[in-house]
## 1
Amino acid sequence: MSDSNAALSPEESNDAGISVETDRRASLRRVAESGASWFYWIAALSLINTAAALLMKSDLVIIVGLAITQIVDGITLGILEEVSSAPLILAIGFAVNCAFASGFVALGWRAKKLEPWAFKLGFGIYATDAAVFLLFGDWISVGFHAFVLTRLWSGLKAAKAAAEPSRVSTVAPAAETSDPRREAILAERSPTRIHLPDDASEQEHKAA
C-alpha cells in the first residue's frame, strides 16, 4: 500500500480537521462582513439623497436609500416654503437624517463583529422601510430593498454559524503503554550477564 493511501494518525487527522474548520469559519466571516457592509451603503446613499433634495433641489433619488429620510426631506422642503429661516430648517432636516444614517453605521459596525442581534435589528428596520415604499406603490424601491434584505439575511445566517462552537475537538497524543509480550521478547534478545557472588569473585582474583 502506498504512503498516500495510508491511514492518518490521530494527530494528523486532528490537524486536517482544524484546517477545514478554520477555512469554514473564514468563509462564514467573509459572508457576514459582506452582509454587514450593506448597512454602510444604506447610510451613505440615504445622505446622498438628502443632500440632493435639500441642497440641489433635485428629484434624483437613489432607490437603496431609506424611505424615512426621503419623508424627512419632503417635510423639510414643505416647511421651507412657509418660513423664512431656511438655514435653521435645513440644519434640522440634515440633523434628523444624519441620526438615522448614524444608526445604520452603528449597526454595520456591530454586524462586522459578527453580532447577530445587529443583523436582526437592521433587517427589521429596513423591512419596515420597504413597507413604506410599498404603501406608496414604489415597486422599484421595494425590489431593491428586497435584494438588500436577502444580503442582510445571508449575513445573519453566517454570523450565527460562525458563533457556534467548533466542530473539531482537540485530540491529545495517545500515551505510551507498556506491552508485556514486547518486553519479554526484548529481554530474551539482550545479552545474559552472570553476576558472581562476592566470595567467588575474591577467590578468582587471588587465583589470578
## 2
Amino acid sequence: MPFVENSVGRGKSPAQLEAGAVDPGGRDGRGGYPRAEMEYALNELFEHWDTSYVLPMLREDFTLKVPTSLPYGGVYTGRESLTKLFSGTPGGGEVWESFEVNVERVLQGEDHFAVQLANRAVAKATGKEVILENLWLFHIVDDRIAAAQFYADTAAAFGPRE
C-alpha cells in the first residue's frame, strides 16, 4: 500500500485522546486508536517533545531501537524508554551543545507511520553544526504503537567510525 501523507487538526488534550474524544465514535472495542489521533500524537512528540499524547497509545510491550553507534543507542522496552529519550536533549548535555528538531513529514502506511526529520545540532565534541536527517518508523499492531525504530546518519553526526 502506498504512503499517504495526512494533516491533522490541533487542540485535543491527552485526556481527550485517552478518553477517545477526538473521534465521535471513540476507540474501537479493542482499545485501539484512530490513525488521525496517532498522527497528531507523533507530531506533538517531535514538534514539542510532548510524550503525553503518544504514551497511552503505546502497547505495554513497546520496543524502541536506537542505533548503537549513537552514545545513547540500544534496544529499550516499555513506555518509560520513550519518556526518558524525550525528556531532554538526546543523550543529554554530554553529546550536544544544541539540538533543534524539524519535522519534514509524517507518512502513514497500512501498518506503520514514518516520521522524517531534518535536525540541526551542534556536537559538543567538535563544536560544529550538523544537519541530521533521521527517520523514525513506528509499527502499528491492533491500532496501537508496538515498536519504533530510529534510523540516523550517525556518520554525519559523529564522523565515520574507524
